[in-house]
Structures are given as structure tokens and as C-alpha cells.
Design goal:
Arc Repressor Mutant, subunit A; about 15% strand; 2 domains; 6-stranded parallel β-sheet; single chain
Length: about 230
């Protein structure tokens, strides 16, 4: 049975290129082609795809629409997979994508999608419930591991590191409190202390939780690119 795919990219040339690549794969069926966030969400409702392959930046804001698609579908259509294509080798975007869970999510650099088989494999893996992270992105995290180990993470107390580990799993403050047998107030104090020690006290452009998670994951053993 073929995998039903929605393709979303506001760049006509890029969109046509992706479509042409996917049309070479008999195991994939393109059910809609979109150019912005609203069109993409409408196509999901109308065409019932298995996977959405989306650019990370599209109208209306040209910021992180691909991530927004993934986050919305996590709530409204949890069985629909999302593969985000990006030219940005930026871990923050990938962590934002995976913040609510890694199942049925993929993040690939556009430079790798010239190989139809590689893109096909990523789509099929996500459709089956797996996660796919571009090896180049994993390399970025690995290269930064030594620097992270010398960073302010070493200043965290054992309890703060426990809280950060829970935070890296995307847990809410209440869930962390339950897991570590703490009060919500205690968890809030620990998290505020973590942000201050990691130099995130005045961060506004990207979620403090995502940045803290990035630092934590870069220090721990990373999973294989295809999970």
C-alpha cells in the first residue's frame, strides 16, 4: 500500500523538484501540493495523508511554519507524520520539532534530498511511526560536545541535572514534580536556577526549555540518525 504524501513549499522550483523526486517512487502517492501554512492544514483535512513533507519556512510569516505544522498535527492528527526539510543546519529547529515527541517526525537538510531513495526511506520510516534526524545535524551536536562539557552545565547541582534530564524529555513542570517527588514550586525554583546558570535568564528569541534541552542532549549519548 502506497504512502499518501502532501508536499508543502512556497518556492515553486523547490516544490516542483521535490514532487519530481517523489513521483519516481511507486511506493509514494502525492495527494496535494501546497505553498503556505493554511493550504497545508487544509490539505491534511481534505486529503488524509500519511505524511506531510514541508519546508521549514513558508508564508505567512516565513519563520518556522514547518514546525508549526508538525506541532498542530501532533494535537489534531497524531497519526500523520511530518518530514521537515530545511537548508539550516540548526539544532534549535530540530529540537523544536521533537519537543512534543519524536515519533512520526523527521528533519532533513535539503542538500540530502537529491537522492530519491533517501527521501523515500525517511518518509516511509516516519509513516511507520519512526523518527529521522539528518546525520549532519547529529554531527553538529557531536562536534559541540566538548565545548558543552566545559560549559556552565558543570555548575548544575545533582538535583538540577535531574530536573534538566526530565525537562529534556519535554515534560511539564507538574510531570517533573510527580516524577521526582517534588512540589511544583520546588521544580519552578530549580528550573529558574538552571536557566540562570546556563545563561538563559534573558532569552526571548527561542524557548529557554529548547535551548537547555539542546545543551543537555549535546552532552549525553546521541541516538542513531534513524530511530
Amino acid at each position: 500500500m502506497s504512502v499518501r504524501v502532501v508536499v508543502a513549499d512556497d518556492n515553486l522550483i523547490a516544490r516542483q523538484g521535490i514532487v519530481q523526486l517523489l513521483e519516481l517512487e511507486p511506493a509514494l502517492e502525492i495527494v496535494a501540493v501546497c505553498g503556505d501554512l493554511p493550504e497545508t492544514l487544509e490539505a491534511v483535512e481534505r486529503d488524509a495523508p500519511d505524511v506531510v513533507v514541508t519546508d521549514i519556512r513558508m508564508p505567512p510569516s516565513h519563520s518556522d511554519e514547518g514546525i508549526q505544522v508538525a506541532n498542530r498535527l501532533r494535537q489534531t492528527h497524531p497519526d500523520v507524520g511530518v518530514v521537515v526539510l530545511s537548508q539550516y543546519e540548526e539544532p534549535i529547529y530540530a529540537l523544536s520539532l521533537l519537543e512534543a515527541g519524536s515519533d512520526r517526525r523527521g528533519y532533513l537538510l535539503k542538500e540530502r534530498v537529491h537522492d530519491p531513495a533517501e527521501l523515500r526511506d525517511a518518509i516511509q520510516s516516519v509513516a511507520r511511526g519512526g523518527a529521522v534526524i539528518d546525520p549532519g545535524l547529529v554531527d553538529v551536536l557531536v562536534r559541540g560536545k566538548a565545548a558543552i562539557e566545559r560549559s556552565s552545565l558543570s555548575e548544575l547541582s545533582p538535583r538540577e541535572r535531574q530536573v534538566l534530564a526530565e525537562l529534556a524529555q519535554g515534560k511539564s513542570n507538574a510531570a517533573i514534580a510527580e516524577s521526582l517527588v517534588l512540589t511544583k514550586r520546588a521544580v519552578e525554583k530549580h528550573i529558574n536556577s538552571i536557566f540562570l546558570k546556563l545563561g538563559l535568564g534573558f532569552t526571548e528569541d527561542v524557548s529557554k526549555r529548547v535551548k537547555a534541552t539542546l545543551m543537555f542532549l549535546a552532552e549525553t549519548d546521541l541516538p542513531a540518525p534513524h530511530a
